[in-house]
Write a structure and sequence with these properties.
The complex is a heterodimer of chains A (377) and B (620). Chain A contains 15 helices and 3 strands. By secondary structure, chain A is an all-alpha fold. Chain A has one domain. In chain A, strands 1-2-3 form a 3-stranded antiparallel sheet. Chain B is an alpha+beta fold and 620 residues long. Chain B folds into 2 domains: 187 residues, Penicillin-binding protein 2a (Domain 2) (Alpha-Beta Complex), CATH 3.90.1310.10; 361 residues, Beta-lactamase. Chain B is built from 25 helices and 21 strands. In chain B, strand 20 and strand 21 form a beta hairpin. Classes of the chains: A mainly alpha (377), B alpha+beta (620). Chains A and B meet through helix 8, helix 11, helix 13 and helix 14 of A and helix 1 and helix 2 of B.
Chain lengths: 377, 620
Amino acid sequence: MELKEDAFRRWGEQRNESWLVRHMHLDVPLTLALIALSITGLATLFSAGNQELGLVYRQLIRVGLAFSAMLVIAQIPPDQLKRWSPWLAGLGIALLIAVEIAGDVGKGAQRWLDLGFFRFQPSEIMKLALPMLIAWYLADRKLPPSLKHLAASALFIAIPVTLIVKQPDLGTSILIASSGIFVIFLAGISWRLMLFLGAVFASCLPLVWLNMHAYQKTRVLTFLNPESDPLNSGYHIIQSKIAIGSGGFYGKGFLQGSQSHLEFLPESSTDFIFAAFAEELGLVGALLLIALYLFIVIRGLVIATQAQDTYTRLLAGSLTLTFFVYVFVNIGMVSGLLPVVGLPLPLMSYGGTSMVTIMAAFGVLMSIHTHRKMIRN
Amino acid sequence: MPYTGSFSDDLRESEQFRHRTIVALILVVLMVSAIVARLIFLQVVNHHHFTTQADQNRVTVVPLAPTRGLIFDRRGRVLAENLPSFTLELVPERVVDLDATINELGRYVDISPNNIQRFYDQLQRKRRHDSIALRSHLTETEVARFAVNQHRFPGVEINARLLRSYPYGSLAVHTIGYVGQINESEAKKVDQTNYSATSYIGKIGIEKYYETLLHGQIGYQRVETNAEGRVIAVLDNTPPKPGKNLHLTIDVELQRIAEAILGDQRGAIVAIEPATGNLLSMVSKPSYDPNLFVQGIDHATYNALNHSADHPLFNRILRGTYPPGSTIKPIIALAALEHNKINADTSVFCPGWYSLEGDNHRYRDWKRWGHGHTDMEKAIVESCDVFFYEIAYRLGIDSMHEYMTKFGFGQKTNVDISDEVSGIMPSRQWKRDARGLPWFPGETLITGIGQGFMTATPIQLARATAAIANRGALVNPRVVRAISENGEEATTINLIETTSESIQLKNSKHWKNIVDSMKAVVHSPTGTARKIGEHSPFKMAGKTGTAQVFGIKQDESYVKEDIAERLQDHALFIGFAPFDNPQIAIAVIVENGGSGSGTAAPIAYQVMHHYLTTLADYGT
């Protein structure tokens, strides 16, 4: 009966929310944080894109689309999502195979599928579908998962990740692999087993190295010593560090960043937008931005712990942690802490595809949080 | 563990999940801390370092070339200027196929084989990333035609440059000189900083001598550039200081007339204002067009100029060393008077030859049957050689050397034009040093008539003549009388020392003796230059000279018909006018011109006549 009282108490809390918010299935703190982040992103884009309003408008449309996607998915009850999980994952893997056979090559990598009216990357589907699949698979089994179930989960992860690595798209495959691994971690895999698997993975690293593409190897080598090749692959990271470092404590001021405005900083409105931001707004701005991301992550984890069944718990936790990986890998790369991996900074970088997926993930989180009351019935 | 139903299972799983979430959160916080630490490292600890790098990234210092000073003649006519010119330039490093590109460019812009030859000549000397001009002075139509097709020619561009231009072409080229592109050895000598934007430097003549004044001071622009190097904004600007304009003592009109009078003959004319040393006109013939050299000359044209038997590139005024012949006789006579070896009435019998005691060699007079009894004046007027053999013998080489040296022979005049040579005024010492041989008495005799080892440049002769006209004041010839900055009045300035030590005589009457004799050369019925004195509206003094050409240099070759001409004597004349108030002193040398009286004297007369009759125009 303790649980029931708890549920009633939460029900009571939600009574304070307006009718509109309740019926839109939105989590207010998360929504406000995401809106704040989007506005920051648009403003930074305005500056980094040399105050070209057209760029900002195009991005605004994408933000609108992404928020719509979130809103639509927030309406779908978690039970429904759970039922669709295997089918969605199956579709995703099928599309990945289709890309392998008939995909478009963009920027040297085969990632796009052209549906005539619409080009998209099936790997985006997998960002949602894989954690859904693993959560669906493990939720109805006894936890912590048995070795057999772990092996099956590992296979579920390996298939799409292999396909995406082959495209090649290292950044996305890291994200998707993490999202699956997070589910397993949250499901309660034993520490001893985790340690063992970690050791196995580490011993496999040389094999991974041998199978990497030349450009990926260069990126890793460049990360280890960017000055070794200051004009080519090291250029991005050197200029990015100069941009961040020259920003200093308070920054050069909005619209005053010389590194991005004079085009020394490459990709200043896409993958390296954090450097442009930190150049203009300094350490103070960067810390505020990171705090905003951290707030979103913590809110996501809170939603996960408050979720009422295993599937939603695992899914919400995994999606939140994956979001954090996005942020960490991007800022780590831009500040020279990690090798250059082509991942955008969520809701800041210019570009549509990944933003729609990220917002869809937040839609799932909101659905999980706002449909809890239905459990009573 | 026994199955205890969904309820407790859920609770346990929830607890497990909560535990894992806290672990995850701790990891998240650790990773965020790593990022924050990294940002503090970049933005606080190393902020200064990265700020410097960011500034180095964006701020570029662009040197601005100063505008080269102009050169004006005495009356303000421009002799050397800077004209804007559209130049078609190629950067070899960025052009894939040079031949094909040049060929293709020919469809839009006129390109002559000479242009191509010159381009390839320069290609060998320049670095791959230097831009090399293919054509200059493009017409506006050509510029437009190329501009439309520019995208098809990577590494090819049209630049508007200021090109040095000499509007009078070959006129006074040996005085003015020319500029050309800086070569490696010149680049090492100049102040690298001041020349970092300059591509031209004075190669010879005034352009070289006054390079420092003409060049000016470099300016700078600190500009903000983007990653492609394009200038976005000018941060600050230190404008260059243009070079000083030079105002010459020579006059275009007189120069033109003097050049016309000398015509196609090889030789030199130097006219000087005795009181000041201002050079009025300097001619060296044949000449050439300095404009050919500004953008770099092509091989064929250069070889033609350089290997021509007429040596047009040779500056005869400053570098032509000729035996002065009889023109030095007045000075030798003066030396003899001063050393009391003769007086004005001393007479020597001239049988047409002279010989030394104990020597059978006969030193001939130009007049085979001799001048008979000859005193000093007659010896100068008729240019008697025997008389001068005798006084040379009496003086000895060292006394002659002493006097000739006082008049500036054997030394540079230090005129403000580059690359002068000193000629030779021989002495015992000189012969020991230069030839390692003792002095022979016969050599003293021929030195007395300006032959033998002695050589002089036309400008030395003109300066010595001015000293005679001044009765001893030895002036230093100069060609620049004033400088100015743009938009300002010219200020007269003595850039070089104007006077040297005057020639002091023990008996100043001796000036009158030789100057009167020189007047008689022109104005007496027996004077060698009497023809020019017959109808002259003014009185003048002068001395003819005819110098033997001893032989042809072995490395010279020319067609047979020329030999006779090239073996003829050099014709010389020195003189000044008007006699009582000298305004102009002149030296004329016509190579293989025959005789001084027949060829050189009339030329000198015409130049002096023009100058004196239009003197008012020159505003001295």
